[in-house]
Design goal:
With 293 residues, the protein is mostly helical. The protein has 13 helices and no strands. It has a single domain, classed as MetI-like fold. α6 crosses α8, α10 runs antiparallel to α13 and α12 runs antiparallel to α13. InterPro entries: MetI-like, MetI-like_sf.
């Protein structure tokens, strides 16, 4: 009688989880497309054409025209993010109870499919001096002359709201829809009004998620570029930091300086993200789902 063939050792026998190996392609993708470029840019920023190791950073912060771009960008990104959060919460509260929720959600997220450049082109035609809005208001005698809504701060602001709201709304709707309706029903049974139910039940449950949504929306708005160029005044009030980096790279051909500006941009973003995530610990620390299901 012959002995059975020896069993080949499996990955589990070697202490390797086969499911974990499925993460390797995604991890490699992240390293090649995100980690490596970031580290390369970081090292490049410390190799200026002139000056010492920190020459690029000293050059940036010694020029008010350059470091002023941080404030100009924050002046756009923060109000846009706050407004999108403020709009998405009440709209999501109403949409979750609607019968045709999918249809309305599709309409609200439509700007995502259009893209930033196409939205900017549309706003130029709609909000420009000879656009539909100004012509309609003048036709009905509501204006004597066109109002300026493009090539300034407001043109970029409106564009960022339109392109950023769908993303914020989808995240907010998913959080609010995950709250167990029984919690609000119990509060209503005890006599709590709609405002009280929102303040004491819904808001504490969604604040941790809103903090993450705020961070993602802020990073997206802070990196604005096409809207600032097409609808703003790149040499003036909408000279955002990403535009300064693009000028350094593709007009001055100083890639080291452009990398330093990009690193400063990343530090500002990480700083605000860290601050918001720290502050969210002051609120409710339980699960954001509210125990639904």
């Amino acid at each position: 009688m012959t002995a059975p063939p020896a069993r080949r050792p499996t990955l589990a026998d070697r202490g390797i989880d086969g499911v974990t190996l499925l993460v390797l392609p995604a991890a490699l993708f992240v390293v090649l497309l995100f980690v490596y470029p970031f580290l390369y840019g970081l090292l490049l920023s410390f190799a200026p054409k002139e000056g010492g190791l920190l020459g690029n950073y000293a050059r940036f912060f010694s020029d008010p025209y350059m470091y002023g771009t941080i404030w100009l960008t924050l002046r756009l990104a923060l109000p846009v993010t706050v407004l999108n959060i403020a709009l998405s919460v009440p709209i999501a509260m109403q949409v979750r109870h609607m019968k045709h929720q999918r249809l309305l959600t599709t309409i609200l997220v439509l700007p995502i499919t259009l893209g930033t450049v196409l939205v900017a082109e549309g706003l130029l035609n709609y909000l420009g001096p000879q656009g539909w809005l100004n012509r309609t208001l003048i036709l009905f005698g509501l204006l004597e002359r066109p109002i300026r809504l493009v090539h300034n701060y407001w043109g970029v602001f409106i564009s960022l709201v339109i392109t950023g709201f769908p993303f914020t709304f989808l995240l907010t709707l998913s959080m609010i829809s995950g709250i167990d309706p029984a919690l609000e029903q119990a509060a209503a049974t005890l006599g709590a009004r709609a405002r009280q139910r929102f303040r004491h039940i819904v808001l504490p449950l969604i604040v941790p998620g809103l903090a993450v949504t705020f961070c993602l929306a802020f990073v997206d708005a802070f990196s604005v570029f096409p809207s600032a160029v097409m609808l703003g005044a790149p040499a003036g009030e909408t000279r955002v930091i990403s535009f300064a980096a693009a000028q350094a790279a593709f007009e001055q051909y100083d890639y080291s300086y452009a990398s330093a500006i990009a690193m400063i941009m990343a530090v500002v973003q990480f700083g605000f993200v860290g601050l918001v995530l720290t502050l969210r610990g002051l609120f409710y620390k339980g699960p954001a789902g509210g125990g639904k299901g």
